[in-house]
Amino acid sequence: MRALANVLELQEYKIAKHREVVELAVYSAVCFLLPFLLGHPQLVVGTVVNAALILSALNLPKHKVLPAVILPSLGVISRGLVFGPFTHLLIITMPFIWLGNYVLILTIKYLYLAKRSNKFLAICIAIMLKVAIIYLAAILLINSGVLPKIFATSMGLTQIYTAVLGALLALSVNKLIKSNAK
User: Model confidence over 116-158: pLDDT tens digits?
Assistant: First the structure.
């Protein structure tokens, strides 16, 4: 457990505590408010939320990544419109979405920041793990009759698109953040 805490502490570059708080507030606001206020299209909302997740992984230590993990689903639930009559079913998938988001962050921190693997490779592996967790859970729930088939696309292919686009956005934004941090 200590090793996990050490990995979660890692940041791509050190920033002042007040900057950490600002970034935490911005990423948290984006993760909750974008799904809550905008809701659709999933491609736009998911891309920006995935960017916030990846930026959290790169820039924030320990527990400060948790709002990015949890808040997007809570924003969707609060809005109550994303899946129309199926929104209540999203509650069933929330633990898997949270796990997928957490694994995305942890994998980036572990592979890129702890093991010093190639950043792009680390992010690609993290995306694959996140999508695998969310999609496999959705397929199991669909096959057991708990979820309708409409969830297969939004929890599979759309997750890949939004995570890849989010990674590209996050890397661009992070480049700007790093250049302004100096």
Answer: 999 999 999 999 999 999 999 999 999 999 988 988 888 889 9
Dihedral in degrees, nearest 10, Cα atoms 36, 41, 45, 51? 180
Q: Are the C-beta atoms of residues 11 and 60 closer than 8 Å to each other?
A: yes
Neighbours of 14 (CB within 10 A): 11
- Domain boundaries of the chain, sorted by first residue: 2-176
Per the CB < 8 A criterion, the answer to whether 14 and 181 are in contact is no
Q: By the 8 A CB rule, do 31 and 71 touch? A: yes
Confidence class for position 85, pLDDT limits 50, 70, 90: low
* Cβ atoms 67, 117 nearer than 8 A: no
pLDDT 10s digits, 35-70: 888 767 888 989 999 999 999 999 998 888 888 888
Nearest of 19, 90, 3 to residue 59 by alpha carbon:
19
Q: What confidence score (pLDDT) does residue 105 get?
A: 95
Three-class DSSP category at 40: coil
Q: What is residue 108's DSSP assignment?
A: I
Q: What is the largest CA-CA distance in the chain?
A: 53
